[in-house]
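Workshop exercise sheet. Pairs work together: one partner reads the sequence aloud, the other fills in the structure field after running the prediction. Swap roles for the next sheet.
Pair: D.N. / O.F.
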Amino acid sequence: MRKKSFLCLIFIMFSLLILSGCPGREMALPLSPAPTPAPVSLTVSAAASLTDALNELIAIYQGKNPHVTITTNYAGSGALQRQIEEGAPADLFISAAPRHMDALEAGNLLLEGTRVDILGNTMVLVAREGLELAEGFAALEESTVRKIALGEPESVPAGRYGKETLTYLDLWDKLEPKFVFAKDVRQVLTWVEGGDADLGLVYLTDAKTAPNVSVVATAPPGTHQPILYPAAVIKTSPAPEAAQEFLTFLSSAEAATVFMRYGFTVLAN
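Structure field:
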């Protein structure tokens, strides 16, 4: 009996030795948790016309990347250009016209290789609620139109595109007494919505956000320079990799869906 028990013990020990040497039988070691990314803060200076779409995309991005905090600075592209030139903190700049990005690039203020055109837009003429007008840009000459709002052409891209359109249509000089100039395209929209101006020249994306205005006309093709939104990482950014990652997200198919819903033309994805 003892001999039989001894043999069984030897058999069990031998079996265990064999099993411990078989491939794929190694004991699993506990995995180390993935390192938590270090917190990073980004400042994005962007054209005012991007406000709604960009705010939505920032919320999506921060939901996926909770270690990233994004602060926005919305204004006319010309004002943002000057702020960056004067040393204001900015990690990423998105302009509503190439000329302002060109100026920063000429001043060696952009991180090389990061500039990309991401969006396009459409210029439209909008009217305040309740104003009865003829269709088209001929409405601008009607006697019931007292004030026409547009961005300051020298600093607000939408204002410059508007001036180009009206000049092409031979209306600029005729209408000049009616013009009131705003600091950015969102102020134009606010004036028209509030009745402080009868008509305004804004982007289609802005018109889509305002239920109390109506689109009277769309600028005909060829009446102004193409509306392009270039973006680039600022050379002095303390977090250039994080800024580039966010810019890559803005050029993604996921971001394109949001931008198109607001009326933008997507150029990069």
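Discussion prompt: The domain at 123-218 is CATH 3.40.190.10 (D-Maltodextrin-Binding Protein; domain 2). What would you look at next?
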